[in-house]
Each structure stands twice: as structure tokens, then as C-alpha cells.
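Progress report, Aim 2. The chain analyzed during this reporting quarter is listed below.
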Amino acid sequence: MSTSQLYRGSLTTIILKLLEENGEMYGYEITQRVKELTQGDLEIKEGALYPSLHKMEAAGHLTVTAKKVDNRVRKYYDITPVGKEETVNRLAELDEFLANMQRIINPKLSFE
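Predicted C-alpha cells for the chain:
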């Protein structure tokens, strides 16, 4: 399993956390922020990003606002209250997953 496969399973969590911290963002801005935060180690492709954004919108986790910028229409995504609850739940699951992985991989260094 490559690192990109591990990230792919976390894409929704990544997007929700970015929107929670930064407020509304458009798709390209999300991809660039992830690239910046990971120092280029993670690049989110449009083919993965936009289906995730659409699913999250359908689930009520995001709202979409179209704005005209430089004679182009740009879609901005923002997190909803339901999305904020989902973020809390997903981050708790991620913390539990990481703690369990630590126990399995290196029990002597387990933080509990």
C-alpha cells in the first residue's frame, strides 16, 4: 500500500479540517494548501477532490457558493455545523486509529 492510498482514505477528514480552520476555500486552493502543509509530499488530484466535495455537500457537511472572480465563476466550499460535528467525529476516530497502530507497531513506545 502506498502512502497515497493511506491519504485517500483520509481525504474527507483532510478537507473538513482545512475548511474548519480556514473558512471557505475553492478547490484549487484546497489542493495547494495541502501541498504546502505537507511540503509537497501529498498532492490531491482533481479526480479525487471534486467527487469528495460533491459527496460532502450532498451529506450536508459543506455549502457551496459561486462567486465571480476575474470574469470566471469560482465555487467556494464552506463547512456547515453538521460538517463541524463530522470533523470532530473523524478526528476522534483518527486519534484512536493512530493510538492502536502505535500499540501494534511499537508497544514499548505506546503513550498510554
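The chain has a mean pLDDT of 89. Residues 3-109 form a domain with the Arc Repressor Mutant, subunit A fold (CATH 1.10.10.10). These observations will guide the mutagenesis work planned for the next reporting period.
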